[in-house]
Amino acid sequence: xxNIQTLPNQIEDPRVLDRDWSTVAACALCLMLSVGTLxxxxxxxxxxxxxxxxxxxxxxxxGALTIGQFAVALTCPFWGALVDxxxxxxxxxxxxxxxxxxxxxxxxxxxxxxxxxxxxxxxTILGGAAAPVGYAAVLVRSFERHLGLALGFALMGIGLGASxxxxxxxxxxxxxxxxxxxxxxALATLILTIPAxxxxxxxxxxxxxxxxxxxxxxxxxxxxxxxxxxCSIFILLGAASGGTLAHFVPLMGDRGMSPAQAANVVSLxxxxxxxxxxGIGWLLDRFNTARLLAGVAGIILTALVVxxxxxxxxxxxxxxxxxxxxxxxEVDFTAFMVxxxxxxxxxxxLYGIAFGAFSLGVGVGPxxxxxxxxxxxxxxxxxxxxxxxxALAALATFALPGYDAxxxxxxxx
Length: 413
Hints:
Blueprint (H helix, E strand, L loop, with lengths): L20 H12 L2 H7 L1 H12 L3 H29 L1 H17 L8 H14 L5 H8 L7 H30 L1 H23 L7 H5 L6 H4 L2 H22 L1 H6 L5 H26 L4 H21 L3 H14 L2 H14 L4 H30 L3 H17 L17
């Protein structure tokens, strides 16, 4: 029974191995307006406008984000399998188009809450490959020794989106209304990401089986201790970080900030994401991944404690700096750990499942925060819950095995 780590991990053009930094830049641009960025980082800006327009509660509106994240969680394994079977290019491009059209259709929302839920589900289902699932599959084919750094640089695009989207969405909403804001962001997504995706995938056209010359059974791999622990940790951290971020604008608004000021706080987190991604990528290539992941959980926990300990505006900026420094780090860790533990032969399928687990957590978190506010009258119970989840995630990292522990799977073809 072969060790999956010894299977070949080749790319279409071996001359670009560990040197294709232009592809990293193109992936970063695509990730700036990827499905997760559009879903999460612009969401909190629209909570108050939608509540005022349609008289929906924050829990009801948060349900749209939960549904969207659940849709991502359920369909990511499917998209990962498609990437393995057909190659990234043939899957990512249609996903971008479908995602953009569905997101733009939010401009035509009606007072029926089901319309909001259906659109968010459709938007995230169609955009499942226009996400780290697709772009990480491009990068793992081009990088080996500098894989962590490549992932970090590419995921800086998410930070750029997190920095620019709240401001852009707030300005568009205040000046032209929330409907035009949705339509404009969707159009910008199409115009910017289609050319970038074409360039990024120019060396990533072949199916995974054509690169490794083998196919492996996935079930034995997803039942390993390493994979189960990874998914559990990502669910916990996704709930804590996603739930806090999704309600950050109204959370700061309840503390006396104007919408523009609250958007600036969220944008500050985005700037820290840009800086943090490169730093974490560099660290991943050099240090123990489990200990680094424990540190990420500890920083999230600290940010939550800051929000609990003080109701001042300054606490919002401090928490934003802390959360932003590690926000989305789970995406770096997911791709890096799946590749290091299991190789390329089933990367798309395994990464799709692991990223789906993270998305599940991100989907549950906002709903819990909305319920905390609507039913208990404050975000404080939700923040307390997320402190516990972050602490549990940090403890779980110490049970992760090292890379020298062989993880095997039978060849099926």
